[in-house]
């Protein structure tokens, strides 16, 4: 009986720790949206932090709830892991094609270099 209680306590602690970690990632992503200088840096900060934060929260919920809810949480995690980077790429590419300039402190524009190389070929 005490082993079952210890296992439940470990699962509870791990689930809560993952949820707290996920909330911290989401908060850092929100700070990145405010602090970053241009749309591309903001997009990168938001995408990475929100992806990690949401997946951590969902994994923590899966540990806490178990059963059918855990399966739903894992499916949602997979959806976030696939759709969030793809959406961020599409938004970044659309911003670049519409002429939104990079921050003056940016080191290089590799997308523009690739487009110019393809035009030359």
Structural description of this entry:
This protein has helices at residues 2-35, 39-65, 67-97, 110-120. The protein is elongated, with a radius of gyration of 20 Å. The termini are far apart. It is an all-alpha fold and 121 residues long.
Describe the global form.
Answer: elongated
What fraction, in percent, of the residue positions are helical? over 70%
Ends: how far apart?
72 Å
Mean pLDDT: 86
Rg value: 20 Å
How is the biggest beta sheet arranged? none
Estimated share of beta-strand residues: under 5%
Oligomeric nature of the chains? single chain
Tell me the number of structural domains.
Answer: 1
Low-confidence residue ranges: none
Topology of helices and strands:
Elements: H1 2-35, H2 39-65, H3 67-97, H4 110-120
